[in-house]
């Protein structure tokens, strides 16, 4: 009998460890690891439960991919972890959205920027044009010529790290646009479509946006009335861009149904992506 109690005591720490609550970052790391995770279903809910019935994300992707996780935000009830998958030729970004249920964290949804598969064939078509066709293209599209369109497409389908690097390299021009918009009071009292059109049509601002490969500026993409959004591009409701909001408390909160990521770049500036979930 004494041996029975001895083995019971020896196994007790393992039992307690198996039941120890996990934080969102820990769950994300397990979910993208190459090895299996027998306890996975205990940490899934909602649509994620349906998406990962038998295998984790880590098991569904090539084992050769490097994977890293970054906690972007965690409150009492929600959390978001960014996941980067990369190898020598590519980078991909996913965003894991968590919800707290009965004091336990659950992976609720997996998000990424949709419809980017349209970009590469468009880019290939544009970059293989002979000079004569490029000249014709520029005549037909004077407001968004060949150089801008190629640069804009490349930026749209780029990994988060490369998009952030683009901002860092051109930070002075981004800040200049923000100053011009404020100084010329385009959105000071009017946030209608007319005010937006006027801001984008301003010759100095327009020239800077084309140089930065930004499609347009707006205040309507993230449902943040006080933010200035620099839209790179996207299709329908799936957009990517930069958000400017000097007050951290006014930065909009991420959610899996619209604003899938808001990633800090430098003070007041963020990379953001949106989607429109059909679920």
Can you offer a commentary on this structure?
- With 279 residues, the protein is α+β, with helices and mostly antiparallel strands.
- The protein folds into two domains: 2-111, Nuclear Transport Factor 2, Chain: A, CATH 3.10.450; 116-274, no CATH class.
- It contains eleven helices and nine strands.
- The protein has helices at 2-18, 24-32, 46-51, 57-60, 119-127, 131-140, 146-156, 160-169, 171-183, 193-201, 203-211; strands at residues 66-74, 78-86, 91-101, 104-111, 216-218, 228-235, 238-244, 259-266, 269-274.
- Strands 5-6-7-9-8 form a five-stranded antiparallel beta sheet.
- β8 (259-266) and β9 form a beta hairpin.
- α5 runs antiparallel to α7.
- The longest helix has 17 residues, at 2-18.
- It is globular.
- The N and C termini lie far apart (56 Å).
- Residues 1-9 have low confidence and may be disordered.
Quickly list its features.
9 strands; 5-stranded antiparallel beta sheet; Nuclear Transport Factor 2, Chain: A; alpha+beta; disordered N terminus; signal; 4-stranded antiparallel beta sheet; 279 residues
């Amino acid at each position: 009998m004494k041996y029975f109690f001895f083995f019971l005591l020896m196994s007790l720490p393992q039992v307690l460890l198996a039941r120890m609550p996990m934080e969102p970052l820990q769950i994300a790391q397990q979910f993208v690891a190459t090895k299996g995770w027998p306890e996975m279903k205990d940490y899934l809910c909602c649509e994620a439960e349906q998406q990962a019935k038998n295998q984790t994300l880590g098991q569904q992707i090539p084992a050769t991919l490097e994977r890293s996780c970054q906690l972007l935000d965690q409150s009492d009830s929600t959390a978001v972890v960014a996941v980067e998958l990369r190898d020598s030729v590519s980078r991909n970004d996913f965003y894991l959205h968590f919800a707290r249920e009965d004091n336990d964290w659950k992976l609720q949804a997996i998000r990424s920027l949709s419809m980017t598969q349209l970009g590469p064939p468009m880019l290939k078509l544009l970059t293989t044009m002979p000079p004569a066709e490029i000249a014709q293209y520029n005549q037909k599209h004077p407001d968004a010529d060949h150089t801008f369109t190629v640069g804009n497409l490349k930026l749209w389908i780029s990994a988060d790290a490369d998009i952030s690097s683009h901002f860092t390299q051109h930070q002075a021009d981004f800040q200049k646009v923000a100053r011009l918009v404020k100084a010329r009071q385009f959105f000071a009292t009017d946030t209608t479509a007319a005010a937006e059109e006027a801001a984008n049509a301003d010759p100095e601002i327009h020239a800077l946006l084309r140089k930065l490969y930004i499609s347009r500026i707006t205040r309507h993409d993230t449902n943040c009335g006080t933010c200035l959004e620099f839209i790179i591009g996207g299709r329908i409701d799936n957009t990517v861009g930069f958000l400017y909001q000097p007050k951290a408390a006014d930065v909009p909160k991420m959610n899996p149904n619209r604003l899938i990521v808001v990633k800090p770049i430098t003070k007041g500036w963020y990379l953001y992506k949106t989607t429109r979930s059909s679920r």
